[in-house]
Structure formats: structure tokens, C-alpha cells
Design brief:
By secondary structure, this protein is an alpha/beta fold. 39% of the residues lie in helices and 21% in strands. The protein contains 21 helices and 25 strands. Helix 4 runs parallel beside helix 18 and helix 8 runs antiparallel to helix 9. The protein is globular and about 90 Å long. Keywords: Calcium, FAD, Flavoprotein, Membrane, Metal-binding, Mitochondrion, Mitochondrion inner membrane, NAD, NADP, Oxidoreductase, Peroxisome, Transit peptide. It is found in: Mitochondrion inner membrane; Peroxisome. It catalyses: a ubiquinone + NADH + H(+) = a ubiquinol + NAD(+); a quinone + NADH + H(+) = a quinol + NAD(+). It is an enzyme of class 1 (oxidoreductase).
Length: 580
Amino acid sequence: MTIFSFFSGASRALGSSSSSSKLLVILSISSGGLVAYSESQTDAGAQNAEIKQKEPQKKRVVVLGTGWAGTSFLKDLDISSYDVKVVSPRNYFAFTPLLPSVTCGTVEARSIVEPIRNIIKKRNGEIQYWEAECVKIDAANKKIQCRSVIDNNFVGNEEFLVDYDYLVIAMGAQVNTFNTPGVKEYCHFLKEVEDAQKIRRSVIDCFERAVLPDLSDEERRRNLHFVIVGGGPTGVEFAAELHDFILEDLVKLYPMVKDLVKITVIQSGDHILNMFDERISSFAERKFGRDGIEVQTGCRVTSVSDKAMTVKVKSKGEICSVPYGMVVWSTGIVTRPVLRDFMDQIGQNKRHVLTTNEWLRVEGCDGVYALGDCASVAQRRVMEDISTIFKTADKDNSGTLTVKEFQDVIDDILVRYPQVELYLKNKHLNGVTDLLKDLQGHERKEVDIEGFKSALRHVDSQMKSLPATAQVAAQQGAYLSSCFNRRQQCQETPEGPLRFRDSGRHHFRPFRYKHLGQFAPLGGEQTAAELPGDWVSIGHSTQWLWYSVYASKQVSWRTRFLVVSDWTRRFIFGRDSSRI
């Protein structure tokens, strides 16, 4: 046997044998061989350690929340470059636009939820999920403190810390009670799947109580008075679903009390659905009037007790008592306490909601992003940068701006300040250069700084805050994941607009919301829709459009099949009135 063959065999033996076998082989060879073999292993170990050190460390991304924004971010994120962890007390994604349908059994609760582990499993299992709630964000040390929400015979430490390089806050918001006495104790909310299930049981309870013997008609009326506080999309859709449930199913089961049922919508504003087109708002009020749903506008609930609520009529200043059987409170949202504490840390304590810039990064906090209902995008005003825009465009430093110089920065202005484009559309102007025309509409060859300010002074009037809708949250999640996926590329080759207050360009284009329309189901197989291009559609055909859009927007084929099956079941057999 040659020396080379012997060492090859020894090497294989050392790679697979136990430590004692290795020692026996080593002792059977010469000291020279021992030294040579040891040196070769040492060199290999050093090379492996050096390779590991050269491998780039993955950035740690922590996502708080599994709602529309968080799930949209996770679905599109390229996790090959990041170590991703998800923390949420809810281990599923819920299709929240169908929550009003769950309250009456039109759709079952499990049909609109998808386990978050099913979603992240499709990403090769490289995303970790922990069922816990974030109780504190330590921005200075880039840590979050979490607490498990599993409280049944929990063994071990229920609190833990998580380090991050990038934090994506997508934990949504909570219901705004406006500190009205009795709301938390006696009212139902409609924000989570559990809320919808509680409402469904409560509706059946109201009917079962109303048919008990030895009750007066007045007591039965109170048990069957359903009050919805808030005339927004959620409150209106629930009122419509409840009316259909009672009319199509419950009156057949409880015929003795069918004339005692009453539904009331209380709205503090002058109209319900006031965020929709006026034509939709008016149609909804007329339809509710025909259906027997009472709409009380210009009223504010001041307190709620176990049997009645106190309502103040704004126009007259009158205060009246309204007895009820069940109340659903749907009056908007407010920032969660953990985010309020975080806002105090970063100097946003004077604001009502966590504020981000146009790239969804939290103002005053590097590496932290906020999406969806929990945050608001602060769009920068043109007039704040008007002097620097003029200086950037005035390349020859002449103190005046020619049309040609203005055209060179038009694209960057339109990208950086989207309100400019909205202003042009509303004023029916053909292009940005039309802003430079004089009062008589004549073109000017050049303008000075004062003329430039005068031309753009009304542009910021078109600025609007984004609505707290699933559509906005989903688009923000997709946008941010796209930025994360192209971070390295865009740092080398920036694609954003000019930095008017600094040199160079922004790495990314700012977030731009694209409104795809919104629906308002009004019951009786009729829906109102506000579509892009100022189109309004109302009626039975719009209801079928609603069916198709909501089915297509389901997060998985499983939930899509279940939702369509529930709709079909309801058409054939009606809604289930069991109290489960």
C-alpha cells in the first residue's frame, strides 16, 4: 500500500469513525504523518471559518400583525435576503370586508380566515411565527417586548424580547369609543371575527328572549330593538345584513314577534355613508326608509346602560332615552396603547396617529415602517419646498425660470408631489406648464420666484389623507415588500425623484395609492359601488359585481371555495339560526 493510499483511507476513517477509532489510527502511524494530517485538518477548519465570516449576515425583519398590510407584505417579500419573524395575537388572516356577513350566517366565520402558518408555509418555512402580542417597542435599542396570548396551563416564560434591524408595524387599530360611558361594557364591536360571532349569538338570544312567556309587548319590543351606532360602511352593511336575516329567515321561525322588530341607525353626521358619493348616500337613506330601517342623523350617544342609551339631538339640544335589545358600536378607530407609548418615545406624542413619510418609514425612527390602519402618511407640501424646487430648476442661476427649465423637473415634481396631478385634473389643465400661464391664460416665457409661488399656491389644497381600508393596507404591504426586494439594486441605481432639499435622488419612488373603487351592500341583493373615474353603480347588477370581486380577492383557493359555497347554501337553504 502506498503512503498516499494509506492517508486517503485514514482520512475517510477519521471522517466517519468515533473519536476512539480516530485515536487508534493516529497512534499507528508515524509522527510525521500525524503532524501532516493535523496540519491539513487545521487548514481546512480555518478555511471553513473564513468562508462563514465572509457570508453576509441576513437582516432581521420583524412584522407585527397578520392583517391586510402584514399579510400582503409577507406574501410578496423575497425572504432569501432576510431573516423574517412574525408576531401577532391572531394566528390567521381574516377577510374583514365580509365580517358583516358573518354576523348573520350568510358566510361562516371559518370561510373567511386562512391560518397564517398556511401562508408562510408556502415560503419554504423560512418565516417564523409567534402567537403573542407586542407590549412595548424599544426604538433606541431596536428590540420589541412580547407577551404570549396563550394562557391555558402555560409553562415557561410568557414574555420575551425580539431584536430587529427592520420593524414593520401592521397591527391595525382599535375601536374608538370616544370615552362614552358604558360602551365597553354593553356594546358589541365589529372589528374581529370573534366580534362577529358574538353578534350572531346575541341576535338569536334577543329573539329567544322575546318569545318567552309572560312578557309584555313593551318588553318584547325592547328585546327586539337593534341599534347600530355609526353610519359608515361597516354599520350600514351590518344593518342591511341584519334586515335581510330577519326578513328572509327569522320571521319564519318567530312569526309571533315579526311586527315588533325594529332596526335603528344612529349617525352623528348629516348623512350615512358620507365618505361616498352623494348619490349613493341619498339612495341608501331612501332604501333604508322603504325597508323600515330608521336612520337618525345629527344624533350623538352620550352614555349607554344595560337597558337603554342616552342620545342627544344636536339640532335641538334635546336628550332622550332609547331602550334597546342589542347595540353594535361602529364609530371609527383609534391608536392602540402600545403605539401611543411608542409615539411618546419618538416625539410624535402630539399627533393622533403614528405618522410616516411617503416611503412608509416612521418619521423620526430609522428602520421602522408602519402600514395600514395604525399609521397615516404625511404627504409633503409643495409650498414647503417651493424655493428649493425653483433653485433646482433654475440651472443657470438667472433668478427666473423658463418653460424649458420647468419641463426638466416636471416628472420629478409629479412623482414627489401627487397633489399636483390631482390639481391639474380638477382644474382640467392639459399639463403642468399650464400653471405658468398668466391670469389671462397667455403663456409666459419665464417666471420669477414670486410668479412660481403664485402658480403653485393652490396645489396643496388637493391633499387628502388615505382612508383606513383594507384596500389601502394591502397596497402598502405590496409596495413595501417591493422596496425590500429591490433595496440593494435601488441603492446602487436610485429610481426615485430628485431630492430637492439635497443632492441625488431618492432610492425608491414614494408610495402612491391607486383607488380601485368601493362597495356598500344595502341589502335585498342590491349594492352601491363607487368605481374609478367617478362612476357610480347601484342595483342588482352591482351586487353580482360585488360577489365576483370579493370572491376573487380571497387569499387562497380554499377560502374562495368556502365563501362561494356559503353564498350558494344561503340561496338554497337560507341562513342557519342555531346558537352555536
